[in-house]
Amino acid sequence: MKQNSIIARTQYISEGxxxxxxxxxEDLEPESVWVFLTAxxxxxxxxxxxxxxxxxxxxxxxxxxxxxxxxxxxxxxxAFLALVLTVLGVLVHLLGWVxxxxxxxxxxxMRALYxxxxxxxVIGVVVFLWRDVPQPGFFLLFGGWILLPFLPVVFGPVxxxxxxxxxxxxxxxxxxxxxxxxxxxxxxxxxxAVFGLFLYASDPGGFPQWLPLAGLMxxxxxxxxLELREEYDRRCRHLPLPWISQPTGSIF
Length: 252
Hints:
The protein is an all-alpha fold. It contains ten helices and no strands. The protein has helices spanning 2-14, 30-65, 69-103, 108-132, 136-141, 152-173, 181-202, 207-210, 213-236, 241-244.
């Protein structure tokens, strides 16, 4: 494998990559990209579920506002579907956290940012319950927890941490094109997270206007996934066939 790594490094440079005293030959193995690719794919998919759920929540609210027994039934059905999609989105995000945990072990700063994102999540939940919920126990007991993934004060610090990890991955992985979708995706995540925090700080009760933001994070994660998939495929071309067997052609 070491000989293959050296060959990969030589061929990678021949494609135009600049590796000025950066990663070692082992850093050019597809595995170093695969863990980030898996994390971005899961986060993109989970955010897509949340985007669909937020659309159903808004649609249900608009329908319930209309008069009639049928409108109420349709609103309840849409709320139930939104609940299912939210739970799916959260579960997929948890898998993404597991993948990012493994990816972040590649460097100390990445590891620190990963743990900071977890701390930011906890602080965000505590701040919301302390500041905006009169009776947190009843709020959580009677289903209020379903709103937590959509709150900018909750997902904002997390997304900022994730985007920072992927920005460091841009330097660590040294992709062939320095200004690429890794940078665009990370910038998209940072922009949406900061914008969400601004909206929440200016109007904590403005539920409809910041509800879709959690789902829109799928744009940033999607950009990152596309770039990492291309980078992974590029590295696989330089190594033996067992690496190429990994699935990379789909979000799922």
